[in-house]
Design a protein that fits this description.
Order of helices and strands: HHHHEHHHHEEHHHHHEHHHEEHHHH
Distance between the termini: 47 Å
Radius of gyration: 21 Å
Strand content: under 5%
Shape: globular
Strand order of the largest sheet: 1-4
Number of strands: 6
């Protein structure tokens, strides 16, 4: 096992990889419950129990494949944002059946897979300048920290000021704040497994003080497999020109979202070479794209790389063993849903406008700390070169504010080629970067018409 995963070569061991895998799983376990709540929204026709089963199986298979084939500590699961497009745009908006919506996801995944096999996706990644690669990692760090603050209720939406401080008189919000302090102390003192210990301590405190519920049961074997294969049978129904814009929008998001995640996770683990490439890049991208197809086939929406993988990398995960552990835990989660729900689940608190908002106080602190760790790459950007630093700044700024990794990358690409053009340095721009920037411009102008 050590030789297969190259433990010694990457400076890790089995214990570290197990802790890293468990940490990553704990920070992304929320998708097991969030994905069914989105896809099974009233009117979609998808059963909650079926989506729960599909989510665990698709994520488990994808993570294990990433570990065994690509040997990279990257975990995958149904993508947030992509699942919302499936539920609210394809099904409720365009009136497609859930089977047809999943067929659209399959086609998008096949398109990305084709580009990987023809080396175009890898070529585009190689065309990204180092300044933007570092900026993507930093922007994603801010993004995931913001998600952590939002998931913990520490930052909330406000109609007057856009964002506001959460209400710390609410138990879950206070628990998230306490958990953040505990986790920061553990990490600052370089305690091995600090992120995971922080998650466990926060969960135990929450149960002791009644902030989060105790498990209602230990296991449940009520599995629903009704969503498996529905999208495959509906592929002939979605081969129509009217759906091309939607397929293209999904393709652009999946294509660059995953690319940004790979860069960020590789940078966090100091696994990038001098050109900003992680080891086995083509295999990583191939597993990612095939996983999107598998997610649509299972009825779990597009399965994509998760930025929460950075939490496991922060704990020392450096090989595919981390991803394999995450995959096994997703499969083991099937009967242990009640326990997973305590740590990864969300609890309601009153929002600023009187409505309930749902927070995940146990895992939110870990995301904030991971965001900090990812932001450290900001020091590698050449800030005194404005033609490099301005696009990097726009990437860092827009990525969290648009709440979309692909859009932040798009702003960076477009501004990079325009500034190089204006400064007379056109030769420094790779031809593929021009094409990617043009495609992003097209997406930005067509998005209002398909969303």
């Amino acid at each position: 096992m050590a030789a297969f995963f190259k433990f010694s070569e990457r400076g890790t061991n089995l214990r570290t990889e197990l802790i890293a895998g468990l940490t990553t799983f704990m920070t992304m376990a929320y998708i097991i419950f969030v994905n069914p709540s989105i896809l099974a929204t009233e009117g979609t026709g998808l059963p909650i129990s079926g989506v729960f089963f599909a989510t665990c199986v698709a994520a488990g298979a994808a993570c294990i494949a990433m570990g065994l084939i690509a040997n990279f500590p990257l975990a995958l699961a149904s993508g947030l944002g992509l699942n919302a497009v499936v539920a609210f745009t394809l099904i409720l908006g365009l009136g497609l059946s859930w089977q047809q919506a999943m067929a659209v996801v399959i086609l998008e995944g096949l398109l990305v897979t084709l580009l990987v096999l023809t080396n175009l996706r890898e070529a585009v990644m190689n065309a990204i300048p180092m300044s933007l690669k570092f900026a993507i990692a930093v922007g994603i760090g801010l993004f995931i920290a913001f998600i952590g603050l939002k998931n913990g209720g520490i930052v909330v939406q406000d109609p007057a000021t856009y964002l506001a401080l959460g209400d710390f008189t609410q138990g879950p919000v206070l628990l998230a704040g306490v958990g953040l302090v505990l986790t920061l102390i553990l990490v600052a003192r370089n305690i091995p497994g600090g992120l995971l210990i922080g998650i466990v301590l926060t969960g135990v405190l929450g149960m002791i003080f009644g902030v989060i519920p105790l498990p209602t049961a230990l296991v449940s074997f009520d599995f629903d497999t009704s969503t498996i294969g529905g999208g495959v049978l509906a592929i002939p129904d979605v081969l129509q020109l009217t759906l091309v814009p939607v397929i293209f929008a999904l393709f652009m998001t999946d294509f660059f979202d995953s690319m940004g995640t790979v860069i960020a996770v590789g940078q966090e683990g100091k696994m990038l070479d001098e050109n900003g490439r992680p080891p086995g890049l083509k295999r990583i991208l191939l597993v990612d794209s095939v996983s999107a197809v598998g997610g649509g086939a299972a009825g779990a929406s597009s399965v994509t790389s998760y930025i929460e993988s950075g939490s496991g990398v922060a704990e020392g995960g450096r090989t595919g063993m981390t991803a394999v552990v995450v995959g096994i835990l997703f499969l083991l989660a099937l009967p242990f849903a009640p326990i997973i729900g305590v740590f990864g689940g969300a609890v309601p608190v009153p929002g600023p406008a009187g409505e309930d908002i749902f927070v995940s106080p146990v895992t939110a602190p870990a995301l904030v700390v991971v965001g900090f760790l990812m932001m450290t790459a900001v020091r590698y950007i050449e800030w005194d070169r404005y033609d490099e630093s301005i696009p990097a700044f726009l990437t860092i700024l827009t990525l969290p504010l648009t709440f979309n990794i692909a859009y932040g990358i798009g702003f960076g690409f477009i501004s990079y080629v325009l500034i190089k053009l204006a400064s007379g340095r056109v030769r420094e721009v790779h031809p593929l970067l021009w094409g990617a920037a043009a495609l992003f411009a097209l997406v930005f102008f067509t998005e209002p018409f398909i969303s």
